[in-house]
Design brief:
Helix content is 84%, strand content 0%. The chain is mainly alpha-helical. The protein has one domain: Monooxygenase, CATH 1.20.1280. It comes from Polynucleobacter duraquae.
């Protein structure tokens, strides 16, 4: 089966939407409760850095599904990481 370019873009947007929206409940719960005891600083640091690199990669190759999803996920992950770092000190 051969996919057309617009079909490939649709798959990218669907994947981007699902992986980003899956992260939203964690972010909302973290903001509301301020309970970050179950959050690992190491894991969130690595995750946030990885998402940031995916964002840079998306910008370099100019692929909007990567750019949009990773920009939003990076902002959410960074906000949780910052809450966690502030709660430790």
């Amino acid at each position: 089966m051969t996919l057309l370019p617009h079909q490939i873009e649709i798959i990218g947007y669907c994947a981007a939407f699902l992986t980003t929206i899956a992260f939203l409940p964690q972010a909302i719960q973290s903001w509301r409760t301020r309970d970050l005891s179950g959050i690992s600083v190491g894991m969130y640091s690595l995750f946030t850095a990885g998402v940031g690199l995916w964002l840079i990669y998306g910008l370099i190759i100019e692929k909007w599904p990567l750019i949009l999803a990773n920009a939003l996920t990076f902002a959410l992950a960074l906000s949780i990481l910052m809450l966690k770092l502030r709660s430790k000190g």
